[in-house]
């Protein structure tokens, strides 16, 4: 019995010792790893952050810069590009960018890509995904280091409305099959557009929308929402925040995936009931964003229209839809 008690004590001490040793190794390893994984101090040793001191009293007073749900509205003068870049560039992010160049719209692709290379997410990894029924007409454009272009063939159509309606489905399936493995953020843009000035990391967010330039001065009663209750895109007259442009959808890849999946489903329900929403995917987008608020809102600087005169609130035009003859580029008007 005495021998048995000594053995039990020995085993107990041995077990306690092993646990203490394992605990020491564990905490030593992870303490070292934590210190190694925090790059701020090391980064600041070699890179001084020099930027104008921010103020809580001085700034834009001619425009609203925050939504009622506390999402930033991005205007010129509301962010410091040097500071924003210093925050985001060390993260080594990849930005997916989708455009549809179907039918004669492929003619806009060169200007889109060449101006994007000058102004869009400069210094970041960018992957362009060009959806087209004319892959042989995709122009050769010199891309800077870290930027790539993929051409994905899609069917054409005799109706531009059908092309518009299929965008959500195609983006959803491409995120599933490819983009989810290749990018952190995604922007879905219209190809008949050009960049004119910086579009950078200030636009990044979980779910990003842009205010339509034709309606930012209007009240909700004037917005061209889908007003028929039978449609899945229906928004009543007494509801609505802003009118968002369908020419830009952005955010984390997984959040944009959810948006496209939901909007695709609502398209299909409407189609089954022989309903086509007033402005196709833009109508469904506005319905989705009404009940799933964007975490960041871009001002009309990020989606201007070339036929529209510049207003005093818009200090910089960053991205705009070009003037075009719809009879020439659309299969139907």
TrEMBL record:
Topological relation to the membrane, as annotated: Single-pass type II membrane protein
GO function terms (MF aspect): hexosyltransferase activity; metal ion binding
Annotated residues for binding of UDP-N-acetyl-alpha-D-galactosamine: 100-102, 105, 190-192
Transmembrane segments: 7-27
Pfam families tied to this protein: Glyco_transf_6
Residues where Mn(2+) binds: 190, 192
Cofactors, names only: Mn(2+)
Gene3D superfamilies: Spore Coat Polysaccharide Biosynthesis Protein SpsA, Chain A (3.90.550.10)
Residues that coordinate or bind an alpha-L-fucosyl-(1->2)-beta-D-galactosyl derivative: 212, 282
Sorted UniProt keywords: Glycosyltransferase, Manganese, Membrane, Metal-binding, Signal-anchor, Transferase, Transmembrane, Transmembrane helix
BP GO annotations: carbohydrate metabolic process
Subcellular location: Membrane
Active site location: 282
Source organism superkingdom: Eukaryota
GO CC terms of this entry: Golgi apparatus; membrane; vesicle
Details of cofactor binding: Binds 1 Mn(2+) ion per subunit.
PANTHER family: GLOBOSIDE ALPHA-1,3-N-ACETYLGALACTOSAMINYLTRANSFERASE 1, GLYCOSYLTRANSFERASE-RELATED
Family membership: Belongs to the glycosyltransferase 6 family.
Protein name (record): Globoside alpha-1,3-N-acetylgalactosaminyltransferase 1 (FORS blood group)
Species in which this protein is naturally found: Salmo trutta (Brown trout)
């Amino acid at each position: 019995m005495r021998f048995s008690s000594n053995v039990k004590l020995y085993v107990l001490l041995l077990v306690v010792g092993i646990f203490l040793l394992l605990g020491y190794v564990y905490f030593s390893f992870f303490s070292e790893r934590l210190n190694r994984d925090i790059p701020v101090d090391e980064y600041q040793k070699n890179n001084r952050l020099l930027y104008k001191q921010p103020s809580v009293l001085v700034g834009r007073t001619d425009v609203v810069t925050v939504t009622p749900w506390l999402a930033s509205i991005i205007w010129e003068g509301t962010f410091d590009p040097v500071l924003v870049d210093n925050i985001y560039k060390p993260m080594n992010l990849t930005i997916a960018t989708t455009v549809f160049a179907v039918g004669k719209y492929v003619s806009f692709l060169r200007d889109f890509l060449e101006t994007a290379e000058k102004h869009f997410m400069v210094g970041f990894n960018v992957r362009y995904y060009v959806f087209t029924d004319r892959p042989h007409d995709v122009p050769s454009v010199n891309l800077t280091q870290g930027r790539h272009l993929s051409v994905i063939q899609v069917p054409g159509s005799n109706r531009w409305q059908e092309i518009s309606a299929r965008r959500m489905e195609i983006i959803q399936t491409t995120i599933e099959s490819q983009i989810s493995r290749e990018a952190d953020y995604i922007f879905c843009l219209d190809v008949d557009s050009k960049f004119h000035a910086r579009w950078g990391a200030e636009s990044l967010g979980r779910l990003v929308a842009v205010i339509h330039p034709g309606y930012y001065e209007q009240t909700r009663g004037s917005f061209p929402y889908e007003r028929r209750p039978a449609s899945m895109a229906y928004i009543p007259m007494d509801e609505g925040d802003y009118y968002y442009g369908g020419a830009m959808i952005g955010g984390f890849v997984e959040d944009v995936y959810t948006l496209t999946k939901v909007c695709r489903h609502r398209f299909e329900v409407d189609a089954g009931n022989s309903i086509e929403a007033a402005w196709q995917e833009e109508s469904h987008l506005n319905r989705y964003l009404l009940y799933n608020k964007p975490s960041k809102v871009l001002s009309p600087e990020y989606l201007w229209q070339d036929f529209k005169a510049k207003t005093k609130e818009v200090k910089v035009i960053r991205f705009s839809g070009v003037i075009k003859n719809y009879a020439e580029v659309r299969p139907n008007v």
